[in-house]
Amino acid sequence: MIGLYLTAPYLVYLVIVYAVPIIQGFRISVLDYVYAAPGASVPQPFVGLKNYRKALSDPLLRRSFLNILEFLAINVPLTVILGMTLAAVLAKLSRMKTFFRSAFFVPYVTASIAVIGVWYFLFSQGGLIDHVLGSWAPNPSWLVNSKLAMVVIALEVTWKQLGFYVLLYLAGVLLIPDSLYEAASIDGAGPVRQFRAITVPALRNITILVTTLALIVGANLFAEPYLLTGGGGPNGATMSPALLIYQKGVEQGEPGVGAAIGVLLTLFILLVAGAGAGARRLVQAREAA
Amino acid sequence: MRNGQYGRTLRRLTTYGFVTLGALASIFPLYYMVVGSLQLRADSAFSGLIPKAGNLGLQNYRDVNKAISLLPSLGNSAIFTLGTVVLTIVVGLPAGYALARLRFPGKPAVAGGLILVLVLPFQVMMIPLYILAVRDYGLADNYLGMILPFAVNPAAVLIFRQFFISLPDELFDAAHIDGAGEVRTLLLVAAPLTKPAILTASVITFIGPWNEFLWPFLITKKHSMQPLAVSLGEYVSTNAATAANPYGVILAGACVLAVPVIALFLVAQRYFTSAALGSGVKE
After folding, report:
1. Domain of B104: which CATH number?
2. Is A243 in CB contact (< 8 Å) with chain B?
3. Could you tell me if A197 and A184 are in contact, meaning their C-beta atoms sit under 8 angstroms apart?
4. Which among A210, A220, A222, B31 counts the fewest CB atoms within 10 Å?
């Protein structure tokens, strides 16, 4: 029984901060909810799926979901390849391991807002990147170019988070028994073969985790499209679901629509995660055959 | 024989070359942040990478301080962050202990809830939580309101749980044979050993609220209540264009925001172990 008392505060917290808002979210999404002063009673009529229809008819919503996919297409391969390789190399280092580990991890602990400041400077028109590229500099410039703005955001987030994933992969690499590598090298397998035949498969679970976390990060993007590209611009090219929820639900005073997008976003995440799991099973089945 | 030696040297060179390149790519933007914050006139040319004596000074720091008064903002960030860390320990540590060592009714519900909140995208509940916090709980422009969604960091609860699981059973059996109840066991046996777990959980929890933009941005309308990440973010989105050297002013603010966390990380980095991060996300 004492366990119940020890966890009671946490349980209360989970109810107040998670359970109640999640239920409220569903409720608000089917109401014509109006912001009112605290204590004032305003009618909040039931409107069925009207908010959902309104949300779905907005081309920006589709754009924002496609932007998550574009984000994943850039972020996941880069993170998996670089994270795995850097971790495998890091595990073999005999000297300066701590230095390199820290160097990779520093961007992860740096505030997004600070990072956004530097990328704003780097990728502005006539910024350092343009100077390096010379006549190859894109026109229109990076952050106002509807084809490139999302790429810049995806690269920024990948860069910022990579150190975290390197540490996750490193934990996995350190668990692989040395005897596997010794046996492989007796069989004449070089470092590249060893990496592909031993390291990559052993880290499969971490790769699944990386993909899942990337999906959540993509859905949650807010500060980058809000500040780096001036509110999801150009023309919604960097619009994210989180930013859209904020614009509809808070700025434009339509909390019902904002809450409905929240529900749709959850479904979308479950769908993409499910598709990922299905694809994995298919690949595994083919490998087994 | 000879060949093997060359091969090994070459391999070592490639290895170090590769990680050095990675480290440079990691650190370079942060270096550029500092350099840019010290430039009196923004110099985005290639040669601007090396600070020039004639274009060097602290004017941007004075300007950003004038625009968003750094000290009160830093104070708000500190209260927001430390409040989160304290609540995470006070509520999360006993919960982690109970989840690791005790059997009680409702345990599966707590464990399930913990995993759920770890993977739930926060933005899904952004609107309802905003409405609840502002209207029903009355927490607009209030430190408790900022802390609320971060108050008990689920990753920290998992770290505590993992830590108590790793303690040997004999330790607890001995206390029980001596007649100590669960609360006495937690306070007298387990708690004194938890210092490393508390430190790990604290530094990992610290990063979240200190760097957070969206939630405190939603819940604070008064500038005097905003943490630094929010006041700097609002400055970027609204006023920066009017400054003489907007990049420099933003980067000066970015340095002030980034330095405390980076310093904490470098001092406490042995608590940022792979294992600790792993236990926060493994299950």
Report:
1. 1.10.3720.10
2. no
3. yes
4. B31
